[in-house]
Amino acid sequence: MIKFEKFTLDNGLRVLVHEDDSTPMVAVNVVYDVGARDESPEKTGFAHLFEHLMFSGSENIPDFDQPIQLAGGENNAFTNNDLTNFYDLLPAENIETAFWLESDRMKMLKFDQKNLEIQQKVVIEEFKETCLNQPYGDAWHFIADMAYKVHPYRWPTIGKIPKHVEDATLEEVKEFFFNYYRPNNAILVVAGKTTVAEVKALSQKWFGDIPQGTTPKRTLEMEPRQEVIQKRINPAKVPSDALYMAFHCPARIDKNYYAADLTSDILCNGSSSRLYRKLYKEQRLFSSIDAFITGNIDPGLLIIEGRPMPGVSLEKAEAAIWKELDLLKKEGPTELELQKYKNKIESLLIFSESNILNKAINLAYFELIGDADLINTEKTKYLEVTRADILRLSNEIFTEENCSELYYKADV
Question: Across the beta sheet with 14-19, what order do the strands follow?
């Protein structure tokens, strides 16, 4: 059981504290309720751009890395479709350094044209390196565009095209900042060698005077049910052919999420999983194969991806996957099979709980989606999944009309 206390400052900042005297360290985590799904279709990549801008200097701090390193700590961040997360890990006696850093960039970034241009170039280079110049790097652009027609998950976090970030103006950046990076749109979690009293005092001291903004109104179009299979063939200079199959599946906050997660594990997590064992080891149809769910807050995708062995056509590889999916739809998993993956997830959750940074990040995330106590109850939700749940869900999601299919054909 991970114990925590929660309080809210007058400006709307939610603060959660987990005391842990077993470590000399403390993790300070700030999550902002803004991700790629909050962008305009004509101005994508802004949330990811801001992940970079938030390290480029604020009112009183020109360099965020140096102070945290001098305090014996480290910091980093990540952005996805649903959120932007910043974290600091440092010795507990230097906890106030993290409060100073995080509050200063929340209060006021240093907005100037030079900083913006530098970070625009960094993000555009990242786009080129990861999406344009890397084999299969543009896969998610194709998958998202096929699977989503109205929901903003139809573009990846890095953005649709580099030009959206390249054309961002200083005024647009300021507007985005003051819309979303406000205390009332953020959650602060502190975990480690600290006390609730200390965190209350430091939170008030460093964050209490930051003015709240207007609460962003999120009005997202929900994706309609997909009625027809989506197919795309992409001839490309890649090392080998590749196949991606994306199926719409339950949202992170849906009670069926846990069955979907276990289903992806049963399909391809470990050497005894179905697709790995049968299609990789026994039949040798694939040189690599994997399955996973995106875990988005809104309804996401279950992805199956693989690269056929030389001489195996994409059509034959795809047919073999469908054969295994049909078998799962017909019989469901065995009781032993399901229990094995429940045990794996239980071990993973227990291991995650041993790390204070993981606890801070998870508490922030669960608070964001509506229930911080999920950090204590998720294990039970996984253990409650039955063979019947997997069977029912498999028949719901593994249908041709619910599939978006991408072929990479090696253009050699």
Answer: 5-8, 14-19, 186-192, 25-32, 84-91, 74-79
Q: How many CB atoms lie within 10 A of CB 248?
A: 19
Among residues 98, 140, 192, the alpha carbon closest in space to that of 303 is found at: 140
Neighbouring C-beta atoms of residue 334, cutoff 10 Å? 11
At 217 the pLDDT is 86
Cα-based torsion angle of the residue sequence 192, 194, 199, 205 in order, rounded to the nearest 10 degrees: -110
Per DSSP bridges, beta strands 186-192 and 14-19 are: parallel
**Strand 230-236 relative to strand 403-410, pairing:** parallel
DSSP reduced 3-state for 355 = coil
**For 285-338, where are the E strands, in sequence order?**
286-293, 300-308
Q: Phi/psi zone of residue 77: left (φ > 0), alpha (ψ -120 to 50 degrees), beta? A: beta
Report pLDDT digits (tens) over 269-304.
999 999 999 999 999 999 999 999 999 999 999 999
Q: Return the percentage of the chain with pLDDT > 70, whole number.
A: 100
Give the predicted TM-score (pTM) of the model. Answer: 0.95
Mean pLDDT for the stretch of residues 254-283:
96
